[in-house]
Amino acid sequence: MTAISACGGDGGSDTGASGATSATKGSAPAWCGTKDVKVSLSDGNGADTWRRITRKIAELEADKCPNVTGFVYTDGQGNTQKAISDIQGLVAQGVNAMVVFPDAGKALLPAMRSAVKAGATVVPYRSPPGGKAGVDYTDYVGTDSDQYGILWGEWLVKLLPKGGNVLYLGGPAGVQQSLDRLGGLKSVLDKHPGIKLIGQQPFNVTNWDPAKTQQVVTAALAKFPKIDAIAADYGAAMDSALPVFKQAGRKIPPIATEDSNQLACDWKKLSKTNPDFALYTNSSQNWMVRTAIQAAIAKAAGGTPPASLNVKNATAEDSVSGKPKPPQCDPSLPGDAILSSGLDKANLTAVFK
């Protein structure tokens, strides 16, 4: 299989190996089907480490099928119009199995709908795009995003028995994933009137960007003399903001977020001087792209689709209970690595070369 990138600022492409050993016909999973299929993964903004790891997982999954003739990756670079143009361009390239992270939400529906009408299988995943499966796109691979917030909330109320101020950091403005997690969080915190969500409403916008997250946390520390806990959509970006607490002369509060190698390593180091810095994480769930890839290929190639298109999540780490395990730091891996991704050390290291 050939992996093609189309994510540069000029829209150009380069070709390289996918990094996996292609499957033989005898060993191909049932979801591969038999028809030739060209696969794509489209990100609305592929700059962060979560996307880079997820892209690698997607390439490796597609490479299990000998009938996959190519893999194309596109990066909208945070520009909605480019993300739309990327999807339109994939049709022209003959891609017939598309997986889309719909950062721009409903704005992508016309492009996805047109791709379906042109004969492509289109599977958005993780962040609900609106619209209707079978009409605006083929299928949607989702997760229980509200469950993230519920788990965060249940953990936080145990640490804040007397109440307190909670800062919630979401992604891009209006993104459904962050709104769903907020809904789950509020469903728990609203039962505890002494706990208040503070800052920008409905959530503090970070764009899942480390530099932006630093800015948001710095501004919050300046505005609020009391921040008792933080819930954050993206653990790696949250980690980048930890130094601003020392700069502001403040201690790091409890944090509930997604797992990140650097975050776990920094917790191990900083919790010694920040006694309230407890850490709870869910799996960052990069691996759910496998289900989206399987669903897209199966539909396009006549394979057996996944049994479920809803991917469940659960607790990854908890520094308080130690269950299912305490924060996991692997100093032999890059800080941006996500240990729950399912990639082995060689592939995780390769992502960041």
From TrEMBL:
Compositional bias annotation for Low complexity: 15-28
Annotated region (Disordered), positions in chain: 1-29, 303-336
Residues of the Periplasmic binding protein domain: 47-302
Record Gene3D superfamilies: 3.40.50.2300
Location of the protein in the cell: Cell envelope
GO molecular function: carbohydrate binding
Primary site of residence: other
Superkingdom classification of source: Bacteria
Cellular component terms per the entry's GO annotation: outer membrane-bounded periplasmic space
A Pfam family annotated for this UniProt entry: Peripla_BP_4
Protein name: Ribose ABC transporter substrate-binding protein
Native organism: Patulibacter medicamentivorans
